[in-house]
Amino acid sequence: MVGEALNICEGGYGTHGYAGLLFSQLLNWLIQAQCNLGSPHMYPKDQMPLQEYDFIIVGAGSAGSVVASRLSEISQWNILLVEAGGNPTATSDIPATAMFYDRDILDWQYFTEPEPGICEGYKEKLCYWPRGKGLGGSSLINFLIYIRGNKNDFDNWEKLGNEGWNYENVLHYFKKSENIRVPQLLDSIYHGKEGYLGIEDMHDPEFVNVSSLIIAAAKEMGLPVSHDLNGEKQLGFSEVPGFVCGGTRCNTAKAFLSPIKDRTNLHVMKNSQVTKLLIDDNKHVYGLEIKTNEQIYSVKTKKEIILSAGAINSPQILMLSGIGPKEHLEELNIKVVKNLKVGQNLKDHFLFLGTVIGFDPFNGMHPKPPLDVLNDVYKYLSTRSGTLSKTRTTMVVGFVDTTGNNKDWPDIEFLNLYFPANDTAVLTEFLHRLYFGSEYTNTLIETNKNYDMLLFLPSLLRPKSIGKILLKNTDPLTHPKIYTGYMKDHDDVKTMLKGIKFIKNYVKTDSMKSRNAFLLNIEYESCKNYEYGSDDYWICAMKQVGSTTYHPTSSCKMGPPTDQFAVVDSRLRVYGVNRLRVADASIMPKIVSANTNAASIMIGEKASDLIKEDWNSDNTIKDEL
User: Fold this and answer.
1) Which of 285, 357, 478, 543 is the most exposed place for a label (fewest CB within 10 A)?
2) Which residues of 372-405 are buried (b: 16+ CB within 10 A; e: fewer)?
């Protein structure tokens, strides 16, 4: 006999019999499908620390999760992974929410320090620098773009004195991580199939019109199109795959920690912040202090500590522990353990958000009806597919060489965000989250009421300008000072102007003309004395709405002993301090010419092998500094 379905409606109304049972099962199934998003059960449990471990890794982000996973492969090694945040949220699992992530939970919410001529069009004239906080780090909040960098980047790293970091060597580690699931790339010599990291096709049929428009205009500009940007050639425009597994965000904790979450030799401390390293008089690191639940724990290491806390937090921890610029540490009465240029080589891809293209709407003037949105939700919950498993058209990426040398080493990357006509609710929320001022915000919202709008954004790939990280005080819970250094070197300004010139010509292509495209004139009060479209106008506009591409790197630079800015050697060991390494984006000697998440994962892979190589079976370390 078929039982009655669960009655969830008011007034005693309910469905009964076999049909009622089916409806209840469907409802329960959808609820369970939602609960499976960001489920805490897929991640390692939170544990209090033992007194001592073989290795302690600080930070469970794009590199740290990899290091913890790979080192725990050695069963006789006990590993502690310390993370300042908690588990990923359900929202972070949905690719389409990339621009609307849970900022209050998953983000450190850093803001830059005031600098003349930068971030002037933002609220309080400060740029917002999102940095991920939680298992997975910044792979929880980025736009899922899987691009590794140019082969010349890595060959140049080795030329700078970093043995073993050439392209041929690092390609092995990119492929080691990767589980490529893009049909046309399955047989590519540039991709791997056996790794933990899910990489999937991110083509979104719902936005095929605008994707095709972007590609067609690039082809008219004489650029290669629709090729593998991680393959033989980088130059050109193409859709790129994303960090996705089964239609959900493949953050690095999901990729590298979930499969091994039950290993008994790996302990994970969540919502726990490292306050300082413990260093003896012989400059041996023997442990660290961790604050969790208002308690301070001192945990020792038998072998090493690996800092993978990222380009902001790794230098902060080093400086709080006495490793950093001597004069700066002495100003704060911090005992100097080792005088190194920690935090002094900060690099980021400067992103200009002032190039906005408007054009005739593809789908009329009406936003998507609520019922269609609910259908999208149902499709995603039931099959993990559809438009919620994509990220609009940010997956169409372009690489351009503005030097005229026709080399496959582009200096500008073009990213994009698409807002259909009258998509003002979504646009308003996006602009609010980035803390834009009213001039920029109001102009874009008014334009979007009548036109489809494409934020066609040039990002400076090889900046010459240098920023820095400094401590505000000796409190480890206080955010450090971030000085971007954006546009200090005039060569960066000239390169960005060339990128803008490319966009001006791009809008004039027949493909763009067919949609009556135009470059939006944003009237900034500070730029009113400059003719719109002139170099002076664009330079002024860059000062208003130039900011980060979410790619800070190089603040603990890898380099030879002769490099005055080097903090770590080519094996990622901190100079002059024993039993301490850094393994994250901060070690990049030069920032890669692409989004930085894939390269950070590669660094974690290579660091793991370096550590395994350096430690013998008798637990002694070779080549100790």
Assistant:
1) 478
2) eeeebeeebbeebebbbbbbbbbbbbbbbbbeee
Residue with tokens 């009060």: 525
SS3 of 82, please? strand
Output the six-digit token pair for 434: 């980035």
Distance CA 556, CA 319 (A): 11
Most distant CA pair in the chain, distance: 82
Please give the Cα distance from 482 to 346 (Å, whole number): 9
CA angle (447 as vertex; 446, 451 as ends), nearest 5: 135
Where does residue 466 fall: left (phi above 0), alpha (psi -120 to 50 degrees), or beta otherwise? beta
CB contact burial 519-543 (16+ within 10 A = b; e otherwise) = bbebebeebeebeeeeeebbbbbbb
CA gap 471, 313 in Å, rounded: 10
Whether residue 393 contacts residue 242, with contact meaning beta carbons closer than 8 Å, is answered with: no
Lowest mean pLDDT among 23-27, 259-263, 578-582: 23-27
CB 283 within 8 A of CB 35: no
Q: Which two tokens stand for residue 494?
A: 């000239």
Q: Is 564 exposed, middle or buried (0-12, 13-18, 19+ CB in 10 A)?
A: exposed
- List all residues 6 or more positions away from 9 whose beta carbon is below 8 Å from its beta carbon: none
Alpha helices, DSSP H, located in 113-239:
151-159, 167-177, 208-220
What's the rounded Cα separation, in Å, for the pair 134 and 38?
12
The helix/strand/coil state of 155 is: helix
Q: Tell me if residue 551 is catalytic.
A: yes
Sign of CA dihedral 559, 562, 567, 573: positive
Cα separation, 591 vs 587, whole angstroms: 9
Q: Is 479 helix (H, G, I), strand (E, B) or coil?
A: coil
Residue whose tokens read 């302990």: 267
312-329 residue pLDDT tens: 999 999 999 999 999 999
What whole-number percentage of the chain has pLDDT above 90? 85
Helix, strand, or coil (residue 145) = strand
Distance (Å, whole) CA 127 – CA 124: 9
Consecutive H or E run containing 298? strand 295-307
- CATH fold of the domain at 52-480+495-614: FAD/NAD(P)-binding domain (3.50.50)
Q: Using alpha carbons, select from 167, 312, 169 the residue that is nearest to residue 230.
A: 167
Q: Say how many C-beta atoms besides its own lie within 10 A of residue 581's C-beta.
A: 26
Q: How many CB atoms lie within 10 A of CB 259?
A: 12
E strands present in 380-442:
396-400, 412-419
Could you tell me which of 228, 151, 263, 242 has the C-alpha nearest to residue 198? 242
The answer to whether 108 and 131 have CB atoms below 8 angstroms apart is: yes
Catalytic residue among 191, 267, 349, 551: 551
Q: How far apart are CA 551 and CA 130, in angstroms?
A: 9
The residues with which 293 forms a beta bridge, in sequence order, are none
Express each pLDDT in 524-547 by its tens digit: 999 999 999 999 999 999 999 999
> What token pair was written down for 617?
């079976």
Rounded to an integer, what distance in angstroms lies between the CA atom of residue 400 and that of residue 486? 20
Q: Which residues pair with 284 in a beta bridge?
A: 578
Contact 567, 340 (CB under 8 A): yes
- Alpha-carbon gap, residue 294 to 292, rounded angstroms: 5
The CB-side HSE value for 142 (13 A sphere, CA atoms) comes to 29
**Nearest of 107, 69, 111 to residue 91 by alpha carbon:** 107
* 189: number of Cβ within 10 Å: 8
